[in-house]
């Protein structure tokens, strides 16, 4: 199992909201003292928060499904349900949150930065909060909303001041081990480093971090080798250091060709990032191809390496790039290099462009009497499988109201009809050409509610019957009174006694006999 993971798909689910409660308060001498059903608790949120102690996404690679706590239902005596616990997921600094389509949702760079990956559902209202001058004792409650469920992609982009880039086996791991306390795996074969390594370097009063990026090869920007897996770790570095192998055993390679190849791959990757990622005002960083570069001619402790470094030093310097001859193995030339990098890092920190904060939205409510009526729903005619042409209603509020409705309670259905009519949904249906008896769908094709539309008469006191009923809803079972219960009970007892008398009469006439009297031989 790998110990370093820098990209995972996380399946998150906010907690469901608790249902409201339908209850009537009872006390001595007041058997019907009014509604006292409490609201349901809200579901918890799934929150991503940056943590400096976390360096990998490994835990989410092993357990990608995470969900927050659910809210508990409301209770009688005006008791509200308990809110579900929020689930806080620590992620490394530099984590980018994207959706399935690759759109950036959040860039968690600062310590303690948070992002709500999945919001919890709202708790349903109890019948106490639903009471009004028209509905003094509602016999229904609202259901809790389900929590948000979605998939997010977490990508880790290492936050370091200096990035070491170069061909495999160029000596990057040896160099970071010689300059810092990092101890990466070092061996004499290509692609020894499979994960980025971080080291902290102190040069005088300056402290900076160095990232050892796994070896790049031609075509890395197109996905060859480990290119696309780790090129993202270069995006946030302030200084790029090219580590060139001056003692390579491959006769087809030379340090200048290696330098040109890696630069071409960086340019191709920078073009793939798009303008938004290369805009200093947006990212607060200098564009990738404009950042300071340093060339390190490594392995000069080898005679052939020293000779090659002597040959290419002037050509590299002619390109305007600082050149340092070092030996990570012999630890020579490291001090000048570390102080030179410290100076470049300090300069980059001073020159870093300020990130422009997004302009704050100023809300200015319209004057009273001049506010236009808000359209909360849109109506379109669509083809519904098995039904033909139907009118589809889409809108946050109508779809939320449908999710909150208990369709087993007729009074709750009537309350939903009142809400839709008052909000103007029926007006939009009329504008779209709907008539009484047409099929209407609220929500998506899958999971929406389909019904036959009849223009609604808003409920008043004269339309409300017993608790849990609504005279506008035809298919309800009337609530029985105590007198009706007694009458039905006595009728049932009389029917049972009549059946017994009939059985006794048949037994007396010999139409059937008791089985216990039969002869065993028969």
From TrEMBL:
Enzyme class per UniProt = hydrolase
> What is the protein's name according to its record?
GTPase Obg
Q: What is the lineage of its organism?
A: Bacteria, Bacillati, Actinomycetota, Actinomycetes, Actinomycetales
Reading the lineage from the top rank, the first entry is: Bacteria
Gene name on record?
obgE
Q: Where does GTP bind?
A: 166-173, 191-195, 212-215, 298-301, 327-329
Q: Which cofactor does it need?
A: Mg(2+)
Cite the GO molecular-function annotations of the record. Answer: GTP binding; GTPase activity; magnesium ion binding
Residue span, Obg domain: 2-159
Q: Which UniProt keywords apply?
A: Cytoplasm, GTP-binding, Hydrolase, Magnesium, Metal-binding, Nucleotide-binding
Sequence similarity: Belongs to the TRAFAC class OBG-HflX-like GTPase superfamily. OBG GTPase family.
């Amino acid at each position: 199992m790998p110990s370093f993971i820098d990209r995972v798909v996380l399946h998150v689910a906010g907690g469901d909201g608790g249902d409201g409660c339908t209850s009537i308060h009872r006390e001595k001498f007041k058997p019907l003292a009014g509604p006292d059903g409490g609201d349901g608790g809200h579901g918890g949120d799934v929150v991503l928060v940056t943590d400096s102690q976390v360096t990998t996404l490994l835990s989410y690679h092993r357990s990608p499904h995470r969900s927050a706590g659910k809210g508990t239902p409301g209770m009688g005596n005006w008791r509200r349900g308990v809110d579900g616990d929020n689930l806080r997921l620590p992620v490394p600094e530099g984590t980018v949150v994207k959706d399935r389509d690759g759109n950036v949702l959040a860039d968690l760079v600062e310590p303690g930065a948070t992002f709500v990956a999945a919001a919890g559902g709202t708790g349903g209202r109890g019948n106490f909060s639903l009471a009004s001058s028209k509905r003094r004792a509602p016999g229904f409650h609202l259901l809790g909303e389900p929590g948000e469920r979605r998939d997010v992609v977490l990508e880790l982009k290492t936050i370091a001041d200096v990035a070491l880039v170069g061909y495999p086996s160029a000596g990057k791991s040896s160099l970071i081990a010689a300059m810092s306390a990092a101890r990466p795996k070092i061996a004499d074969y290509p692609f020894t480093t499979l994960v980025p390594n971080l080291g902290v370097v102190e040069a005088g009063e300056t402290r900076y971090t160095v990232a050892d990026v796994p070896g790049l090869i031609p075509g890395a920007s197109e996905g060859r080798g480990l290119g696309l897996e780790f090129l993202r770790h270069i995006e946030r570095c302030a200084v790029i250091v090219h580590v060139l192998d001056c003692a390579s055993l491959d006769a087809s390679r030379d340090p200048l060709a290696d330098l040109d190849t890696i630069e071409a791959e960086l340019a191709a990757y920078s073009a793939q990032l798009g303008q938004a990622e290369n805009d200093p005002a947006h990212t607060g960083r200098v564009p990738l191809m404009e950042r300071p570069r340093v060339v390190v001619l490594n392995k000069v402790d080898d005679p052939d390496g020293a000779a090659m470094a002597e040959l290419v030093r002037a050509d590299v310097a002619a390109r305007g790039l600082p050149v340092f001859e070092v030996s990570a193995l012999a630890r020579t030339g490291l001090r000048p290099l570390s102080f030179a990098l410290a100076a470049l890092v300090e300069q980059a920190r001073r020159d870093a462009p300020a990130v422009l904060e997004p302009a704050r939205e100023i809300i200015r409510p319209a004057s009273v009497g001049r506010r236009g009526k808000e359209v909360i729903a849109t109506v379109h005619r669509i083809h519904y499988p098995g039904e033909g042409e139907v009118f589809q209603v889409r809108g946050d509020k109508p779809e939320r109201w449908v999710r909150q409705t208990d369709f087993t309670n007729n009074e709750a259905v009537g309350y939903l009809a009142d809400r839709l009519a008052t909000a103007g949904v029926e007006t939009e249906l009329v504008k779209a050409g709907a008539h009484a008896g047409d099929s209407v769908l609220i929500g998506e094709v899958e999971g929406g509610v389909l019904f036959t539309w009849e223009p609604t008469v808003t409920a008043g006191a004269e339309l409300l019957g017993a608790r849990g009923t609504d005279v506008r809803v035809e298919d309800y079972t009337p609530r029985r009174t105590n007198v009706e219960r007694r009458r039905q009970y006595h009728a049932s007892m009389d029917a049972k006694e009549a059946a017994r008398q009939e059985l006794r009469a048949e037994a007396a006439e010999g139409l059937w006999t008791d089985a216990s009297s039969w002869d065993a031989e028969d």
